[in-house]
């Protein structure tokens, strides 16, 4: 079985094609194609509330390329989801309809709750009896989910994201709302483990180097890495640290969002499982199709 997930974010657009196999009762998800294209739709939307004509044309071309790959790989099923930038743009629905009519690719514009729900699908195996704060920072929004004893007790999406923060488009009341949400649902006496998802926290994790706990970051280590990044100019981050241009400018604002949420929750450790929206979409697609045909 071959499945495809398209994640249309505010800072970049990703497509992954996965082959699902079963051997001796074990289900295996193998990535056979992955593409990330730096189309920053959020830059348009957070300033003008619409996707520009230039980016509309690029987006149409990109979706056409993705559809060709989906057909070439003979994908059994796919899911394409658009998040913050597309859902906030005045012309987002029109562009989605244009893609459907011209290319035959169906795109769902999902709200923050659905986005969080899909991301959570990929995290289920990491959630145990302890208390967790899941923080997913995208280009245009941040989704927070709070778990205790394997149950999700609260979830909310905030208009706080890396591109939005870079462009100084996050308003003070939104920060206050996030702070109140965390304080309402987390007892300050509770030991909270954070879970960080999103491209920027994965890159911060990578930059911290080898560690004893393979997938964990300490709060202090995140701060040290952000200070390290801040010591370079944007040009140096691109050329000396080999960061993509669309990563180099947003990684510090994104890191500060993770820091702020952890600080409010008094969380000292973060699990970084290198999962995200596309992985949740894959899980949903698998569950939908697993009984249709042999793997």
Automatic annotation (TrEMBL):
<protein>
    <submittedName>
        <fullName>Phosphatase</fullName>
    </submittedName>
</protein>
<dbReference type="InterPro" id="IPR050273">
    <property type="entry name" value="GppA/Ppx_hydrolase"/>
</dbReference>
<dbReference type="InterPro" id="IPR043129">
    <property type="entry name" value="ATPase_NBD"/>
</dbReference>
<dbReference type="InterPro" id="IPR003695">
    <property type="entry name" value="Ppx_GppA_N"/>
</dbReference>
<dbReference type="Pfam" id="PF02541">
    <property type="entry name" value="Ppx-GppA"/>
</dbReference>
<feature type="domain" description="Ppx/GppA phosphatase N-terminal">
    <location>
        <begin position="31"/>
        <end position="282"/>
    </location>
</feature>
């Amino acid at each position: 079985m071959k499945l495809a997930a398209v994640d249309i974010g505010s800072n970049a657009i990703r497509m992954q094609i996965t082959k699902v196999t079963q051997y001796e009762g074990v289900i295996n998800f193998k990535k056979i194609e992955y593409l990330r294209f730096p189309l920053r739709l959020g830059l348009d939307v957070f300033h003008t509330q619409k996707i520009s004509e230039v980016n509309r044309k690029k987006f149409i071309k990109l979706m056409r390329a993705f559809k060709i790959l989906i057909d070439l790989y003979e994908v059994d099923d796919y899911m394409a989801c658009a998040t913050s930038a597309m859902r906030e743009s005045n012309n987002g629905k029109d562009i989605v309809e244009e893609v459907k009519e011209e290319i035959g690719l169906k795109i769902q514009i999902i709200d923050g709750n659905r986005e969080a729900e899909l991301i959570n699908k990929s995290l289920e195996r990491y959630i145990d009896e302890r208390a967790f704060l899941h923080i997913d920072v995208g280009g245009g929004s941040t989704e927070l989910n709070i778990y205790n004893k394997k149950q999700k007790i609260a979830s909310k999406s905030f208009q706080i994201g890396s591109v939005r923060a870079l462009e100084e488009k996050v308003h003070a009341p939104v920060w206050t709302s996030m702070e109140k949400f965390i304080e309402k649902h987390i007892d300050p006496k509770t030991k909270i483990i954070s879970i960080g998802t999103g491209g920027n926290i994965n890159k911060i994790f990578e930059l911290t180097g080898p560690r004893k706990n393979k997938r964990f970051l300490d709060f202090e280590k995140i701060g040290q890495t952000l200070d390290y990044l801040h010591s370079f100019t944007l040009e140096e981050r691109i050329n000396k640290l080999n960061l993509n241009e669309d990563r180099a400018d947003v990684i510090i604002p994104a890191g500060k969002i993770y820091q702020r949420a952890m600080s409010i929750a008094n969380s000292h450790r973060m699990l970084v499982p290198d999962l995200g929206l596309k992985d949740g979409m894959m899980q949903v697609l698998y569950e939908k199709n697993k009984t249709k045909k042999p793997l």
